[in-house]
Amino acid sequence: MAAPGAHSAAHLQLLSCNIAAGGNIRRYGDYLTKSWKHVLPTRGTRSNLDQFADLLSEFDLVGLQEADAGSLRSGFVNQTQYLAEAAAFPYWSHQPNRKIARFAASANGLLTRREPNEVLDYPLPGRIPGRGALWARFGEGERALIVVIAHLSLGPAARRAQFEFLAELIGGQDHVVLMGDLNCSAHSPELKLLYRNTALTPPAETPPATFPSWRPRRAIDHILTTPGIHIERLWTLPHPVSDHLPLAARVRLPIALAGN
Q1: Cβ–Cβ under 8 Å, residues 214 and 240
Q2: Where are the domains of the chain?
Q3: Cβ 150 vs Cβ 133: under 8 Å
Q4: Does pTM top 0.85 for this prediction?
Q5: Any idea which fold 11-257 has?
Q6: How confident is the model over 53-102, as pLDDT tens digits?
Q7: Do 48 and 37 touch, CB atoms closer than 8 A?
Q8: Are strands 11-18 and 61-68 parallel, antiparallel or unpaired?
Q9: What b-and-e string marks burial along 125-138, b requiring 16 or more CB atoms within 10 Å of the CB?
Q10: Cβ atoms of residues 232 and 204 within 8 Å
């Protein structure tokens, strides 16, 4: 699945990040003083995205959350497409989830160096609509790798319903990667529900904190895998594009998937 010559065929370099539309938030006060950036364009956003794109060359697959789908605040730029082109990813998909008139449009995004066989998007349940899961399949049958990119709600009750939905979506698949801003710890009660109902497993080691990016204290962004996909390394990138640090993983694939 890796680009020719980039990495061993039996390994993948993965990255997940909530980019908050490239908002460049650096302290809690920015949520108030820079709140206008949620609806109006700013020159710094493009520069911030360009710096982020420079970090993506070593990765095979990137999952984005809160990428702007092309509204006023991004200068009507689809940020998933922009990052794919800036970082030379030949394939990209996005899933618009929440739109506020013409001012803001959030989306999940997928950047990949190998063409997926199938990409589907699913709205997640919740009292307030606007959360989603982007599902991609690489390969066929038992040799398929399933990648799910998700952004879950802030409230535990809504997250529980969303994890129940994801458990049904993932089902009994043996080779799955779930990545995204799950807004809870790896051992939260609602995430344990997902472990019980799928083959996904909790991290073998304490995952690195990703939020807030300027003083990380909470590990709420995750890259989770089923047992056959071994995470050899899990780390954060030092350059924040938003109030979340990007979370990276190097995974080893089963031999059966190596040629996907």
Answers
A1: yes
A2: 11-257
A3: yes
A4: yes
A5: Deoxyribonuclease I; Chain A (3.60.10)
A6: 999 999 999 999 998 876 656 566 899 999 999 999 999 999 887 655 45
A7: no
A8: parallel
A9: ebeeeebbbbbbbb
A10: no
